[in-house]
Amino acid sequence: MLSRSNLLKVSRINPAQIARAFSSPAAVQNISSSKVSTSYKVPSDIKEFGGYWRKGSSSIIQESDLDYATSLRALHARLGLKDKIELNSLARTLICQSANSKYTDNLAMASFGKNLLNFYVYEYFLVKYPRLTPEVLQSVADLYLSTESLYKLASDTWGVEEDTRSALERYLSSESQGGFDERSLFGKLIYSSNSIKRQNGVIELLSGEDIYAGRKGAHATFVRALIGGIYAHSGIDATKEFIHNYIIKPKKLDLKDMLIFDQPTRELSRLCVREGLEAPVSRLLVESGRFSSHPVFVVGVFSGEQKLGEGQGASLIESKTRAAVNALKAWYLYSPLDSTLPSDSNSQSSNFEGVYIDKGSVVV
């Protein structure tokens, strides 16, 4: 225990003395000879971010390990990755952390790639449809970013192969003489289905649904890791091009079916008031078979002389409601013709104009 006199001595130490002590040559030599330096390397210039280095226990995939990886080369060509990512990095994107492989897994690449994918998907739809409500925008983004969507993309669209060996086969192969050569799996998605869960000394067998969820997560992790790998090798422009060409544009969405209105006529009236337009008025345009068993009415909703929407139905009330719904859909699905994404290369020029920002959804 420190005495009162020793405590006073400690409290009187000048912080500058501490800084000089740690910056002295002797202190630097002591730090460099410590165990920390065997795992971490810090450059002399702390702002030289590319000079930081950490020693890991995992092995790095070499080009010579990929001589017979035909599945990997096929995937590399199928996704047009010749000039975007090297083969050994692509092989790493297919190794999940759950596989406990001796090679470096894709966790770090997937963590970074997830942020890039989220950014470009949200940017695209925020600029293309600036009037979408937050709820619809989130639903649209989930169709591209969710684990289920990325799983279908990797498995069904890209045709990613996976290691289908059972847990018993993996165990027997690891116990075989000479061990199992993991290089034979390069080009396939390597992961563990986590068929058991240990908690407080109790082993619980997972259900088929939980095992299937692990499979989906592995495919989604691969897609995110691939995005991170393309960025590391080819930069931000190539990453954006790949996301747009292989993830965003191939999926066709009908956003009209995603817009649901509880009180369309009232919401349309509030919208006209907010925008300074004349109050909406419904007018019967065409009718057929009013006194028959299958009448058809076509109603248009107008603001002054401008028709906002049109709808048809078996009754006047139904037609009026559908006309208001179609008018609201036309409003919320507005898309600028000459919109420019903020991430476009020419957006840094002096002629760049900010994107259109709407006032927000109508509160009923």
Automatic annotation (TrEMBL):
Keywords: Mitochondrion, Ribonucleoprotein, Ribosomal protein, RNA-binding. Gene3D superfamilies: 3.30.160.20, Ribonuclease III domain. GO terms for molecular function: double-stranded RNA binding; ribonuclease III activity; structural constituent of ribosome. Its main location: mitochondrion. It holds the Pfam family DSRM_MRPL44. It comes from Geotrichum candidum. Residues 72-235 form the RNase III domain. One of its GO terms (cellular component) is mitochondrion. One of its GO terms (biological process) is RNA processing. Belongs to the ribonuclease III family. Mitochondrion-specific ribosomal protein mL44 subfamily. It is found in: Mitochondrion. InterPro entries: dsRBD_dom (IPR014720), Ribosomal_mL44_DSRM_fung (IPR044443), Ribosomal_mL44_DSRM_metazoa (IPR044444), RNase_III_dom (IPR000999), RNase_III_sf (IPR036389). This is Large ribosomal subunit protein mL44.
